[in-house]
Amino acid sequence: METKKDILWRVYLCYLAMLVVAVVILVKIFFIQQVDGNYWRSMADSLHDRYMTIDAERGTIFSADGRMLSTSIPYFDIRMDFMADGLRENNGIKFRENVDSLAYCLSRLFRDKSTAQYKLFLEKGYRSKERYFLLKRSVTFEQYNALRNFPLFRLGRNNSGMIAEQNDKRINPFGLLANRTIGLWRDNAPNIGLEATYNKYLKGTNGKRLMQRIAGGVYMPLEGYQIDPENGKDIMTNIDVNIQDIAENALYSELVSNEATHGACIVMEVKTGKIRAIANLGRQPNGSYMEDYNYAIADAAEPGSVFKLATLLSLLNDHYVTINSPIEISTDYSFGKRIMHDAEHHPTEVVSVKEALEMSSNVGFSKLAYTYYKNDPQKYVNDLKKLGLDQKTGIDLEGEVKPVIVTPQSRTWSSTALPWMSIGYEVLQTPVRLLTLYNAVANNGVMMKPYIVNSIEQYGKVIRQFEPVVLNPKICSDTVLQQVQSCLEGVVESKEGTAHAVLDNPYYKIAGKTGTAQVANGPHGYADHIYQATFCGYFPADHPMYSIIVTILNKPHAAHIYGASVAAPVFKAIADKLYALNFEKQIPSQSRPVFDSTLQIKTGQTDELKTILTKLDLPVSAGNMAQPYANATVSDQQVYLKPVNIQKGSVPDVRGMGLKDALYLLENAGLKVMVQGKGKVTSQSLQPGQAIGKDNSIAIQLS
Hints:
With 703 residues, the protein is α+β, with helices and mostly antiparallel strands. The protein has 22 helices and 31 strands. Strands 2, 3, 4, 5, 8, 19 and 20 form a seven-stranded mixed β-sheet that branches. A six-stranded antiparallel β-sheet has the order 11-10-9-24-23-22, with helices on both faces. It has a four-stranded mixed β-sheet with strand order 25-27-28-26, covered by helices on one side.
């Protein structure tokens, strides 16, 4: 009996315990469902659904004339949800009815698989019941538009299961043109150029899209649950594509011919400081050239004789000399244990300061600087700092390095630092910094800040406009300015000028300065004879519009090393083309054009001939001719226009005419014309003046 009670007691105890556990479970279930239900449901959803970023469309970078320099092109990854309700209803009748024609269209569009292969591919996806089936990657916008009209896909997403995911790719429509200036943007990588400098405007604001996790850990977008991104803003630059192309081609040609290491060229608008072109080309291991580094703003080097302009401004501003002051020059001159050399050998002679600059005498300028500043070199340094030569220009492009001007307090200062500084050694300058100084001389002493971006726009509306900025309202007095301008013009115009042979021309005036600096090559020092050649100047000198600097680092032991023979030809190639594009042709005042007695002119419309001959400033005699067409003959230094008689019903005389005029007259006369050759008409099968008969065909022969 006792045993039975003991067993029952244990059974009841277990039953009670199980009852208590059941009650606790029921209470917990109630709390989970009713009290904490929303929390746990959101937690469950978070494991399957999540918001993912939708990248904003990056803004476009435009040239000054509105052409795209860098833009984002949409590409699409095309996927299919084979469990879409419309696709599965009625045992997939829509899929079966459209799969053949869809496979055919896909094969014709992408040309990577046959129709049969695409059909098998689609049927395999349908059987797999995949909800995120990859059909094709990197589909272009044009291809995507075509896809939307394909069989099945044109029924809409629910009926076709088509999912299009947009991805943007950044491209430069002009390829490598100004590539280093425009730059590039890559996630999680170093970025350069305007793309990096103005990234906060270009990048826009990203959106969000709710994505659902499906089998295989893949996420697919949920329709209607997204926050659209705000696209980036557009950058309107001052870069002129034509000028950029001219500058790059001119620089490239010289680099190739001289097998140079690298080169840079900047074209600046004088009055505003707008940068119209920046070319940076470096030699690659295979011998080609590409924009691999921004040498124009990030490469500070000893500039050589182009720095003599700063020394000249210092001497003139301090009233120590005028450009007519005498200075004795020679081939060599000793400063302590160091010897200063002139590039050209010449006997000891006395020349003016202007002549010393024109012939780029190192001895002359180093003696001038040493004579007047040896007791107070800090005064010379302060003069250079007033010109901004120790500061960045502030150009709106990341990567500009700060120039270096040594001072008497510098560790590298020595007793010979002053004379070597005066000719562009023991100082470091970037091309953009030097150009800013020369541009100030061209701009009547007003130093402008160089800048590349003109405005920032959004949907065609300007939201920020950049105006020209004055860095220094007056770098010198008007008297000093006139003297300096005269010296820079003399470098080109004087027969002794270092750039005379290359740049002097009868059509427009150029002012500027050559520079040649020997460059150390690491542990080899100066033994490799590497030289940097520079020309910096502006044109037309009497009404400056553009200032240009060309800097080229030559290879070791190069055949041509001087600024006049390496950099100046690039300046000339650019200046000639820009002058032709922007200025009317000027005839030299010292000579009258010689009349070409061999001149040949096509027969044509009288009014057009008169206009052209007058524009060309050619002597023309036409009298009061009423005929609409005239024949031009050249005799006795004169162009004579004789009327071409055209009678109705008769074959016109079209000999000497261009094809356009000949066709107009012959077809208006009712003739069928057969043409052979190119040029102007030399003969016609029907004699001029004869009556037009039933056979109204005529053959004309062009030269």
